[in-house]
């Protein structure tokens, strides 16, 4: 059952259309790094945003599941303006389009960031397999802003450590532990599902709050993915 009578269409989006959606309708304000598959969404012919699946930012994303790099992608953005269909409907329609054009694809991986207050309600609503949080990592607090360690690696020259670079260039920088992101898996064939089900853990819950802000409602303008 759909959430509205208006027609939903998902198809390939241009780089420019995807960039506009991410910059205007997503909290990150940017496209994800690496090669990506950009699936646009239209309601009654009106462009409402994009769902982006990426490959390349993590060269080993499929390794824990015995998959080649070509068999696994990450869902990295859901950037939508005001819309009528549930976000879950749009996401799954985009996923079907991706699978249609990539028959060798076997697994989608996605993450919900507790640092942004997300537990992954949209994945829970569509029966993704939850396999727990990623490991706690240390990032950097610099001038009151949290900076990912990958950003520091991109800035520092070879031959010195992150700590050496940061403390040489930034005053009062601190290494801070950051909770690991919640990890969700969507298998795309029965064999893959059978392999992953033993890894399933109970879904995490957001304490004392409903989950609409994670993107399960119809009216979410900037989906928190």
Total tally of structural domains: 2
Low-pLDDT segments, ≥5 res: 209-224
Proportion of residues in extended strands: 25-35%
Helices and strands: which structural class? Answer: alpha+beta
Let me know the largest β-sheet: 7 strands, mixed
CATH class membership of the largest domain:
Alpha Beta
State mean pLDDT (0 to 100 scale).
Answer: 84
Write a brief structural summary.
The chain has helices spanning 15-25, 87-101, 121-125, 149-155, 162-169, 190-196; strands at 8-12, 35-43, 46-55, 72-80, 107-112, 129-133, 137-142, 145-147, 174-178, 182-187. The protein has 225 residues and is an alpha+beta fold.
Notable traits:
alpha+beta, Aminopeptidase, 7-stranded mixed sheet, 6 helices
Task: List the topology elements.
Elements: E1 8-12, H1 15-25, E2 35-43, E3 46-55, E4 72-80, H2 87-101, E5 107-112, H3 121-125, E6 129-133, E7 137-142, E8 145-147, H4 149-155, H5 162-169, E9 174-178, E10 182-187, H6 190-196
What can you see in these coordinates?
- With 225 residues, the protein is of the alpha+beta class.
- It has two domains: 8-135 and 180-214, Gcn5-related N-acetyltransferase (GNAT) (Aminopeptidase, 3-Layer(aba) Sandwich), CATH 3.40.630; 137-178, no CATH class.
- The chain is 24% helix and 28% strand.
- The protein has a seven-stranded mixed beta sheet, sandwiched between helices.
């Amino acid at each position: 059952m759909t959430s509205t009578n208006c027609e939903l269409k998902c198809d390939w989006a241009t780089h420019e259309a995807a960039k506009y959606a991410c910059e205007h309708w997503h909290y990150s304000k940017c496209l994800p790094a690496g090669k990506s598959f950009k699936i646009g969404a239209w309601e009654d012919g009106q462009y409402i945003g994009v769902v982006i699946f990426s490959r390349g930012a993590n060269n080993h994303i499929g390794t824990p599941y015995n998959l080649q790099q070509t068999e696994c992608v990450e869902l990295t953005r859901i950037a939508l303006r005001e819309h009528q269909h549930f976000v879950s409907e749009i996401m799954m329609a985009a996923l079907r389009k991706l699978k249609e054009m990539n028959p060798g694809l076997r697994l989608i991986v996605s993450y919900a960031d507790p640092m942004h207050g997300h537990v992954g309600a949209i994945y829970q609503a569509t029966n993704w397999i939850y396999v727990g949080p990623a490991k706690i990592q240390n990032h950097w607090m610099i001038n009151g802003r949290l900076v990912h360690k990958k950003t520091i690696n991109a800035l520092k020259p070879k031959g010195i450590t992150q700590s050496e670079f940061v403390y040489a260039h930034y005053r009062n920088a601190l290494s801070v532990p950051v909770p690991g992101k919640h990890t969700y898996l969507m298998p795309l064939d029965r064999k893959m599902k059978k392999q992953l089900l033993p890894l399933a853990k109970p879904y995490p819950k957001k304490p004392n709050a409903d989950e609409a802000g994670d993107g399960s409602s119809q009216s979410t303008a900037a989906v928190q993915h």
